[in-house]
Amino acid sequence: MTEKQAWAVNGFLGMLLLVVLFVTGVYFLILAQNPLLGVLCIVLAAIGASGIFTVQPNQAAVLIFFGHYLGTVRKSGLWLGIPFAMRRKISLKVRNFNSKKLKVNDVEGNPIEIAAVIVFKVIDSAKATFDVDNYEQFVEIQSETALRYVASRYPYDNFKEEGYSLRGNTDEIAAELAQELQSRLSVAGVEVIEARLTHLAYATEIASAMLQRQQASAIVSARQRIVEGAVGMVQMAIEEFQREGFELDEERQAAMINNLMVAIVSERSAQPVINSGSLY
């Protein structure tokens, strides 16, 4: 069911008309000695008064007349609608939903803890009222379902630096989570404004082991960068020697490369050794 505009007139104008109708009824009843017309006017004024209702800012009133959806009034103020129509108020404010910490398995089977905050608002009051039983509860359940689905598609961390990971690509994961949520919540007339991860960690039983793995991976990565930089510096040194006219044979080059690599790669300060003799 799609939202549509309900018939309603300005409430102040409607109250003025009802007062005039009531006064007219009193006039016919007392002064004009026409009780039938007077009672009819008073009854019509009382019936019309049942159609008076108010709409607060950022709120919508869904009008239902004996099981038939009449429409929705979104504009705030005092209104006069169809008498005896039921009015269900729906909040149009932007709201937050903070999910529980869920324990799921990532794509590699590692148990992780994950949670997210969902920012949403109702954009179709008819769908939120009639197409789902309780749209707020529907948002909560579908948010947790979408979060589990997205978390199970990616690894917690990508040690090979290929593809996305939950920890390394938070913006991309948030965008996919919001898209997945929107596809699930459209049936309830809800728009997902933003979805962000608020908690991400390994489960307690593997947290210590995965921390050691992360540390080892960081050490290997750092060593690799140091070696790459050291090789580049050695190449620059040899080229500079050749540019200045110093000719080094293969054995001297090997010795210089060995000394430079040790000095650059070593974690401790290199101790210079002065060779007073010949290399040969």
From TrEMBL:
Keyword hit for Protease: yes
A single Gene Ontology biological process assigned to it is:
proteolysis
Pinpoint the Band domain residues: 50-214
The record's section on InterPro entries has: Band_7, Band_7/SPFH_dom_sf
List where the protein spans the membrane. Answer: 6-29, 36-55, 61-85
Give GO terms: molecular function aspect only: peptidase activity
Could you tell me the superkingdom of the organism this chain comes from? Answer: Bacteria
**Gene3D superfamilies, sorted:** Band 7 domain (3.30.479.30)
Keywords assigned? Hydrolase, Membrane, Protease, Transmembrane, Transmembrane helix
Recorded hits in Pfam families, A to Z, give: Band_7 (PF01145)
SUPFAM superfamilies from the entry?
Answer: Band 7/SPFH domain (SSF117892)
Specify the protein name. Membrane protein
